[in-house]
Each structure stands twice: as C-alpha cells, then as structure tokens.
Amino acid sequence: MLRKLLLAATLLVAPALARAEWHEASSRHFVVYADEDPAELKAYIERLERFDQTLRFITGTPDKPLSPHLRVQVYVVENVREIESLYGGRGPAGFFKAQASGPVAFVPRDSGEGPLDAQTILQHEYGHSFMFATWPSVVFPKWFVEGFAEFVGTAFFRKDGTLIIGKAPEYRAYGISRTSTMPAQRMLQLDPKDRDIDTQTLYGRGWLLTHYSLLGGHAAELIAYIQAVNAGKSIDEANRAFGNLSQLDSKLNAYGRRQTLDTISVLPDKVKTGPVALRKLTPGEAATMKARIYSQRGVDAERAPMVADWARKAAAAYPNDAPAQNELAEAEFDAKNYAAAEAAADRALAVEPDSVHALLYKGMAQMEIAKAAKVTDGAKWKSIRNWFVKANKLDTEYSQPLILYYESFAAAGQAPTKSAMDGVIGAYVYAPYDDDLRMMAGRVLLEQGNLPAARIAFEKIAYGPHQSEDNVALRIIKALDADGKDAALKALTAAEAEAKKKEKDGKKKGG
Question: Which positions make up the signal peptide (predicted)?
C-alpha cells in the first residue's frame, strides 16, 4: 500500500509538460514531437536522419521501404526530471524502446552535464535497432552488439556539418582498461556472463575491440570470427580468427593507449536526408500529449488508471479530434476499460476512417471483451479479426496488425490458421528488433518445422544485449540442439507457463 501511495504521489507532482506550441516533425525514419521552435525541430530531425543515412553509407546498407508506423517516434520533454518521472526513478538521461508496435525514444531538451547525455543514449540504442533490422539473421556476440552501439553512439557533428563516428566513449574509460576483468578469452564467448561491473567493462572492452577491428586494420579478422560463429563452428575455433588471445589483449591495451585514434568523417554532401514535414499539433493532440507520452512509455497496473484519467479529462473537450480520441482509446484500453476504449476508437474513426491506430484499438477492445465473455461464435471472432485485416490493408508493412490477427486465435481458443502463422513471420521480417515478436516467430517456425530459422530467431535474444535473468531463449536453443523440435517446444511452453504464473502471483501481491 505504501508503494502505491508513493507512486501516486510521484505521478501527481510529476512536472507538467510545458504548454506552448507543440509541433511534429516527420521524416523517412523518424517522427519527433516537441514543444519547440519549428526551425530548431527541423534541424534536430535532420541530424537524426543524417545519423541514420551515415550508418547506411558506412555499412553499405540499402534504405529499404519502411512502414510509416515503424518510424522511431521521439518525444522531447523539458528536462531530466521529467525523464526520471517517465522512467520510474533515477536512471539514464533518456531511453529507447524497440518494439513491434513502433520504436519510441524519450529525450530531454536539456540533459544536463556529462558525456553520457540523451543524444548518446539515443544513438547507442538506435545503433542496436539498426544492427538487428539490417542483419536480422546474423548472430552477433554480445561484445560486438554493445561495441558497435558504443562505436556509433558517440557520433557528433562539427560546426561545418561533418558527422564524426568512432570517438572514444569517455564514460567507459574505467571499463576500457580492465583487461583482468574481461580478457579476450572471456569477452569473445557468445555468453560472457556479464553482471554488475562486468557490464561496464564489457561495453568498454567491446568498444575497444570494435574500434581496433573496424578502424585499426583488423576488419578481416572480425569478419572471419563472425562468419565462423554463424557457420556453427565452436567458439574456440571462431576465436582463432583473432590469433593468440593473450597477445590480442596486449595489442588492445597498446591500441587503447594511443594518443589519438582514427575516426570516420562523413561530409554533409555524402548523404541525402530527404524531406521533412512540419506541422503544429491540433488543440486536442496538444492537450492529451502528457497522457500520450506516458502511454507510449508503457504503463503498469498502478499507473494505467491515472494516465487514463489524464486522457479522459484532456480529451473531453475534443470529441471530434481523432488524435485526442486515439490517445483516450489507448489509455482506456491500458486501464482495462475496454468498452470506453472502443467508444473512443469509434469517435476517432468517425473523423478518420483510415486511422490504423483506431482500427487496431477497436479490434483489441472487442477481442478483450469477447475473451472475458468466453465467446465461441466463429462469426463474431471473424468480425473482430476484420479490424486487423482492415489495418493491414492500409499499411501492409506494419507488424502490429499481423501480430494481433495471430493472437486473436489464442484469445478465441482456436488453432491459428496458416495465414495467421505466415503473418507472424511477415511481422518478424518488418520488426526483427522486437524480442517478444522474435519469440513468437520462433514458436511458429518450430511448429512449421523450420528449425534453422527458429534457431536464428532465438539466438539473437539468447546472446543479445537484453537477456532475461534465466535466459529462456538459450534454454530453448539447448533443448533444440540436444533433443530436437519437440523438446524445444516443450521448453518454450514451460517458460510461457512460468511467466504467466509470475504475472498472476505479482497481481495477487499487488492487490
């Protein structure tokens, strides 16, 4: 009870987002919302696009078609205090969520002092998403996943517009030199078991080996190592690409002690960023922005009712404002007020019949109502799924309608159809950076008997940057390797049951 009271008090006194002129800037890969001068906002999103295009330029990556709903939404709030309120306590100066419904980032206008600022965090996390979206079927060891993100995360612009990549991360200085804690023999493992101080060291040493490989003339060794890992060779065999590992530690230390290290300089005329559209938010959109930011951050059972109350009060004066009603639909849904969520979605659709967000929340609300009522009528479930089908037809490269269509079969207590299962694989192709979606796709691939592809889906999670404590994905891989498809499915089903039990127990304790 005390925890709930403290949380409520924190949210009640959470700094109100400034009420001035909220604007939206949108480009090919980003949508930025800020209470900011339009010219400043345009310059900001152009820098983000320059960063994205530069990553493509230096890696030789083509710019593939992208769903407008899968662009990164960046919300700029006033200061770090507001970030902490969103985050739920003291934490980073900004944060990023890579999710199949659409990646989101939260940054402060003023991130205070220090080298690990919000822009560095955003670039680091975007580096992860870029890596997983660009090479979704490649397994990268954790040191390189983090080393690459650190390598691009410190990018900065000179006054002439040149983007510099490869600057040393000053905030990792302690970890970079800790050879004894993270020698190459340990770091090069797929799962180095990093915990506590080892995380700081892995990031630092990972950056150093990445820099040494990419800019120190050792790219061939890195490529051979990654190819060996992905060819299924033992990690000891893969490590031989770098030669004697004790000597590698000495070489890395000498490399890190150099007075100056090379960087990549990309002049402004080397990349094209494309057009930027600017617009002032509607009055209803601006009024509901605080609730929207918290909804996008994600709410738990304790925060959801309060955010729904904010949205309800803010949207009341704007029944014909589609963005305001869309936020109300989302907030009511999160608070489990499904009839109210459907009503808000209806109001949004009355104004914008092609609103993908409203179509999805209309279907989601109906699905939850039908599930609670234990509806078995096939015609009713087909009607519910039709909302997701409509959304998919409006944006065929958006992952969320495909996911919801698949999930509707479990909600109805029915086996998914082949088209539903194929849809999940399509969603996975569009948003391979979402771990929950990869787990879902991994299950489908196992059930379809495509074991190599299933293994790839689980490997990125098992050896990725955000492993769970018990590393469910690694358990599934071990079961698959030891005893095949049925054992892997059994391990996955057991893990899902464990997660449901924990969630149920958590609700009991919270109640």
Answer: 1-20
Angle (CA) 160 165 170, round 5°: 110
pTM of the model: 0.89
Residue pair 23/36 in contact by the 8 Å Cβ criterion = yes
What are the DSSP calls for 341-389, one per residue? HHHHHHHHHHH-TT-HHHHHHHHHHHHHHHHHTT---HHHHHHHHHHHH
How much is the pLDDT for 411? 97
Domains along the chain?
1-138+273-280 (3.40.30), 168-262 (no CATH)
Q: pLDDT tens digits for 48-79? A: 999 999 999 999 999 989 999 999 999 999 88
- The region, left, alpha or beta by phi > 0 then psi within -120 to 50, assigned to residue 471 is left
Cα R_g (the chain), whole angstroms = 24
Structure tokens at 419: 């088209």
Q: 58-64 contacts: CB < 8 A, separation 24 or more?
A: 58/165, 58/264, 58/266, 59/134, 61/134, 63/28
Instruction: Render pLDDT for 103-158 as a digit per residue (tens, 0 to 9).
Output: 999 998 876 555 668 889 899 999 999 999 999 989 899 899 999 999 999 999 99
Check residue 195 and give its pLDDT: 55
- Nearest Cα residue to 438 out of 450, 422, 455: 455
Nearest-angstrom CA–CA distance, 71 and 473: 27
pLDDT of residue 7: 39
CA–CA dist 98, 372 (Å, integer): 30
